[in-house]
Amino acid sequence: DVQLQAFGGGLVHAGGSLTLSCAASGFASDNYAIGWFRQAPGKEREGVSCISVSDGIIYYADSVKGRFTISSDNAKNTVYLQMNSLQPEDTAVYYCAADGQNRFASMMAAVLGYDTTPHFASWGRGTLVTVSS
Predict the structure, then answer these.
(1) Range 79-96 burial, b when 16+ CB lie within 10 A, else e
(2) What is the per-residue pLDDT across 97-133, written as a single tens digit (0 to 9) for each?
(3) How far is CA 72 from CA 20, 87, 92, 128, in A?
């Protein structure tokens, strides 16, 4: 079974930075995709960024483009989300999700906002990011 562990959240002042990590296990190869999603109180879950682990294709939501960077360390089966210039509106529980490479287009659609009800094979527990003003 695929398992995901997300960690790295915390409390940061506006303008600060955090790096989230999503450690994946159970994949037989690199043919999978990882996406970061977030859910703020009272709001729907939204896509933040995703990466195709095998070929490095990346997408970002407009709201985080230029501030967040997703990357993958395939040797460690870990995907990172470097978040800079954090703002109070970035406050949310952040989740990582994984699915097969054949579902990367769906993950892209979720990140770009075309799919507001993302469904993927595996989800990690969320990690809370709180940005104070």
Answers:
(1) bbbebeebeeebbbbbbb
(2) 999 999 999 999 999 999 888 889 999 999 999 999 9
(3) 12, 24, 22, 21
Rounded CA separation 26/55 (Å) = 19
Q: Pull the structure tokens for residue 66.
A: 């230029």
Amino acid at 77: N
- In the chain, at which residue ranges do the beta strands (DSSP E only) sit? 3-7, 10-13, 18-25, 32-39, 46-52, 58-60, 68-73, 78-83, 92-100, 122-123, 127-132
Site of tokens 């985080």: 64
**Residue 24 amino acid letter:** A
Give, as one character, the DSSP assignment of residue 112: T
Nearest to 99 by CA among 42, 27, 40, 7: 27
Tokens 């360390």 sit on residue: 73
Which amino acid belongs to residue 78?
T
Per-residue pLDDT of 9-31, as tens digits, reads: 999 999 999 999 999 999 888 89
Beta strands 122-123 and 92-100 are antiparallel
